[in-house]
Amino acid sequence: MKAYFVLAEGGRTRLEAREVAQPVAAAGQLLVRVRAAGLNRGEFIAGHGLTPAGAAKAAGGEAAGEAAGTGERVMGRAAGAFAEYALMDRREALPIPAGLSFEQAAAIPLTFMVVHDMLVEQGGLQAGQWLLVTGVSSGVGVAALQAAKAMGAKVIGTSGSAEKLSKLKDLGLDVALRTRGPDFSHSVLEATGGQGVNLIVNTVGGSVFAECIKSLAFQGRLAIVGYVDGKLHADVDLEAVHSKRLRIFGVSNKLRGAEQRASTVAGFRRDFLPFFAEGKIRPLVDRVFAFDELPAAKAYMEADRHVGKIVLRV
Q1: Which CATH architecture group holds 113-250?
Q2: Which of 144, 160, 271, 285 fits 180 for a cystine, CB–CB 3.0-4.6 Å?
Q3: Quick check: do 2-108+283-313 and 113-250 share a fold?
Q4: Which percentage of the chain shows pLDDT scores above 70?
Q5: What is the mean pLDDT of the chain?
Q6: How many CB atoms neighbour CB 233 within 10 A?
């Protein structure tokens, strides 16, 4: 079968198409005929460590398709999703809600499970509270906006593009801040009556970390999820963290075990899957690329031209 592999070389990543044997499902696994797979920026950032230098790694992390043998439409996290067939942990395979295409379904698993981790499991976001999303037009950023609005929260988002912010107003973005720099805390405090936000999803990285700390309310929470700016280090105002009783947490699955990942899936199934089934959330797919266009899709993502998710049709 055809499959893509990703390699990290010289601080960058590149893709390589190969012919490989079709995978065989072991106990507890599901073989899936992949129909669509979502792109995720973290996989292509060498500094994230998801692709170790040297050996090639099967590319792709989330897929939608048909379960081999039954034809059931399923979606879920799947290592090596940029291929004709991939394996899923049966505990992580989810039914695709009626009315969603394979392309829309492929935009859900990784992104929205990360968002559930940030907003619900660790973030404790409640209806009526304020959420700030830096880099709100990214795949995770848009998903965080959509989920937070479905939960009844208010959302502030930053982006350097007025056009992107305008599109997200239609999804319920309450306050749009046009900026790529660490200069938004004053506007955030003004929008929240001087209180600050209850939760921040930082998809940008270390360059805005200090500004995020300034923007948090008492007992605020800061989720670290991305490094689009390439900055993995930042100064920490310990006095602010101390006095405001702040919580700073990461959402990577890199070191989590299968049981821990499965618990996240169970939470997503309980809290978020009904939003898709009821039509309260429809994944925002920016563009769909053909299977042999994956390198072009990667370049499109790295050019930061998208709003929402980029999907590969297999």
Answers
A1: Alpha-Beta Complex (3.90)
A2: 160
A3: yes
A4: 97
A5: 95
A6: 8
- In the CATH hierarchy, which fold is given to the domain comprising 2-108+283-313? Quinone Oxidoreductase; Chain A, domain 1 (3.90.180)
Stretch 3-31: mean pLDDT:
94
The secondary structure of the chain, three-state, reads: CEEEEEEEECCEEEEEEEECCCCCCCCCEEEEEEEEEECCHHHHCHHHCCCCECCCEECCCEEEEEECCCCCEEEEECCCCCECEEEEECCCCEECCCCCCHHHHHCCHHHHHHHHHHHHHCCCCCCCCEEEEECCCCHHHHHHHHHHHHCCCEEEEEECCHHHHHHHHCCCCCEEEECCCCCCHHHHHHHCCCCCEEEEEECCCHHHHHHHHHHEEEEEEEEECCCCCCCCCCCCCHHHHHHCCCEEEECCCCCCCHHHHHHHHHHHHHHCHHHHHCCCCCCCEEEEEEHHHHHHHHHHHHCCCCCCEEEEEC
In this predicted structure, the answer to whether residue 254 has a pLDDT above a threshold of 90 is: no
Ordered by start, the domain boundaries in the chain are: 2-108+283-313, 113-250
| Type of residue found at 159 | S
